[in-house]
Amino acid sequence: MPDLLLIGGATPVMLDRLSAAFTIHRLAELPSGWLAEHGDTITYVATNGHDGVRPDIMAALPNLKMISCYGVGYDAIDTDEAVKRGIMVTHTPNVLNAEVATTAILLMLACYRELLRNDAYVRAGKWESEGNPPLTRSADNQTVGILGLGRIGQAIADKLAPWGTTIVYHSRTPKDVSYRYYDNLTDMARDVDTLICITPGGPSTNKIVNAEVMAALGPEGTLINVSRGSVVDEAALIEALQSGKLGWAGLDVFEAEPKVPEALRAMPNVVLQPHVGSATVETRAAMGGLTVDNLLQHLADGSVISPVPECADI
Predict the structure, then answer these.
(1) Among 181, 198, 203, 264, which lies 20 to 30 A Cα-Cα from 230?
(2) Residues 150, 230: Cα–Cα separation, whole Å
(3) Which of these is catalytic: 239, 255, 257, 310?
């Protein structure tokens, strides 16, 4: 059976299917120097969007044919090098669109309706001793700017539509949609109530949501990030929230996750999640299934189901 390098974890169902077709080598269990001696035997890699494939690992696999990524984001994989070497890279789009969109809206609602504050208020007995808490804000009839109107961005827009939401967006190029397009992110931030980040990570979007964008969003504005921690300048975000230049933030991703700055953890106007945008039993099962399906199909006939855009022509 061909040799597969497993980077990160895999579910029991994935392992059962993979072990029937591949000899699995878990990177975390390999002794020092194993790749240098045996890397030429590895022809397939299964990984995830967080771990990706480090450049030194890819370089140690001269006969690598394919990388299957469990996740829609793949910025931790050097696709330029993969294309140069003719290595197919796949990911798991579409099967997680609805779940990540739900997470974005969950964070938005938690900020608008002060879910954490009110939960703490009840738990502390203040409702009984002090009466009703302060009023919150309505999430209806808001203007929401989406940074990155791809598959998930469109799913977010679809889920917001029944609330009377005005959707606008910023992306590299205009889309064939009815929403207003902004070619300048700061201008869009100035015109919206909430900015939702769902753009891919990588050098082109690194800290694209900077101090200027957050200042434009303003003290009544809400920032939601369900994309990559690198998309938002975390130091500028902390300063904006502490100073009142920005009102609220709902974050599922962070620059150095799982490390989250104490300053963010201490602020009551911030809702935090541990990168669980797609983390439901149903969605993760679908992602795992597609990860394995891509590997098995490539092994069978050289084709794949969901290549990353850069590898569509390999």
Answers:
(1) 181
(2) 18
(3) 257
Q: Which range (127-131, 145-149, 201-205, 267-271) has the least confidence? A: 201-205
**How far, in Å, CA of 76 to CA of 47, rounded?**
10
Residue 123 annotated among the catalytic residues of the structure: no
Tokens of 46: 């299964």
Mean pLDDT score of the chain:
97
Residue whose pair of structure tokens reads 């800290």 in the numeric block:
207
Q: What tokens does 232 get?
A: 């938002």
Q: Is the dihedral of CA 197, 202, 204, 207 positive or negative?
A: positive
CB neighbour list of residue 82: distance below 8 Å, 6 or more residues apart: 58, 67, 88, 89, 310, 311
Token look-up 């797609």 returns: 278
Going by the DSSP 8-state scheme, the letter that residue 206 receives in this structure is T
> Any catalytic annotation for residue 50?
no
**pLDDT single digits (tens) 255-306:** 999 999 999 999 999 999 999 999 999 999 999 999 999 999 999 999 999 9
Q: Which listed residue (275, 282, 284, 298) is catalytic?
A: 275
pLDDT, one tens digit per residue, over 182-229 is 999 999 999 999 999 999 998 999 999 999 999 999 999 999 999 999
Catalytic residue among 91, 228, 234, 298: 228
Kindly report, residue by residue over 13-51, the tens digit of the pLDDT.
999 999 999 999 999 999 999 999 999 999 999 999 999
Cβ–Cβ < 8 Å for 154, 182: no
> Any catalytic annotation for residue 275?
yes
CA distances to 9, 167, 196 from 185, in Å: 37, 14, 12
In sign, the C-alpha dihedral spanning 81, 84, 87, 90 is: positive
Q: Is 278 exposed, middle or buried (0-12, 13-18, 19+ CB in 10 A)?
A: buried
Give the length of the chain: 314
Residue 314: band (very low, low, confident or very high) from pLDDT cuts 50, 70, 90: confident
